[in-house]
Amino acid sequence: MLLEPPRSGDVYLRAGVLMSTHVTIQVVGHGANPQETIDRRESVERAFSWFRRVEECCTRFDAQSELMQLTAQIGVPVPVSALLYEAVQFALAVAEESAGAFDPTIGHAMEGHGFNQEYRTGHLVRTDLGGRTLSAPPVTYRDVQLDLPNRTITLARPLVLDLGAVAKGLAIDMAARELSPLENYSIDAGGDIYVAGCNPHGDRWSIGIRHPRHRDQLVDTIRVSNLAVCTSGDYERTGPRAHHILDPRTGTSADAIASVTVVAPTAMAADALATAAFVLGPAAGIQLLERHGVNGLMVSPTLERYSTRDMPSVA
User: Does residue 75 fall inside a structural domain?
Assistant: First the structure.
């Protein structure tokens, strides 16, 4: 997706590379006096720090991350941070709602398809399961057990969790919470976007939805505020044999859809539901989105469009 660039007005912009993507935060207004300018910059820095914290907690590309420390412990309840517990809990809820079309236990399959390169170093990551092997039948989200009162997670069998479809959304949501006193702002993390209030022109934010087959074209444009907009597309990351959106039930790339864009109150919901709908395909995918009261646009490989009833559009 493409967020309109700032062209005028009192805009503070900060950008950086985090969580393997380019993150940009814009804040409109609140720069009328020196103290407001300082407060704004400090808020943006705190917002950026959430991306670092979530990455340190939830990445499968660092053996020292909390997620990978959990992966090393099989069959025992492991106390975890509130961040990791929230990410895993949400991922499991979406897995249940989608009947396994979304499943965070696909990390080993992702590695097998070549999606195991650490973005900062280029090093290939191969998870050490301590000599254990993945046994049949294949692992699923049902092999992950939560204990809310004690905030522990138990992995019933050797597996590798992949939180890529929820962690970036969680980071965006935490950054948005940090920025909420500023009222008018946007957070763009590689096309996963949350916008609040008004753009520099005093209007709702305009977001272009990328054409899945032509990088320089849009299939639609929407105007939204106080909402997240996230897209899953088969063009985003490709490996030697597959694109990165795997159907956990088959271990192969889902191919019924080319892109799914979801508009939801939170980025974590938009990101995860976009991935789940992508795997489910147009009919079941639209049903999933409407059942959860969010809007979406799905585009097939032959460019047929499917959308929820209330998907906003100005194109």
Answer: no
In a domain, 266, yes or no: yes
Tens-digit pLDDT profile for residues 173-212? 999 999 999 999 999 999 899 999 999 999 999 999 999 8
DSSP of the chain, one letter per residue? -EEPPP-SSSEEEEEEEETTEEEEEEEES--SSHHHHHHHHHHHHHHHHHHHHHHHHH-SS-TTSHHHHHHT-BSS-EE--HHHHHHHHHHHHHHHHTTTSS-TT-HHHHHHTT--B-TTT--B-----TT--PPSSPP-GGGEEEETTTTEEEESSS-----HHHHHHHHHHHHHHHHGGG-SEEEEETTEEEEES--TTSSPEEEEEEPSS-TT-EEEEEEESSEEEEEEETTS-B-SS-BS-EETTTTEE--S-SEEEEEESSHHHHHHHHHHHHHH-HHHHHHHHHHTT-EEEEE-TT--EEE-TT-----
**Which domain, by its residues, includes 248?**
2-28+183-307
**pLDDT recorded at residue 98:** 97
pLDDT confidence bin for 7, thresholds 50/70/90: low
Q: How many folded domains does the chain comprise?
A: 1
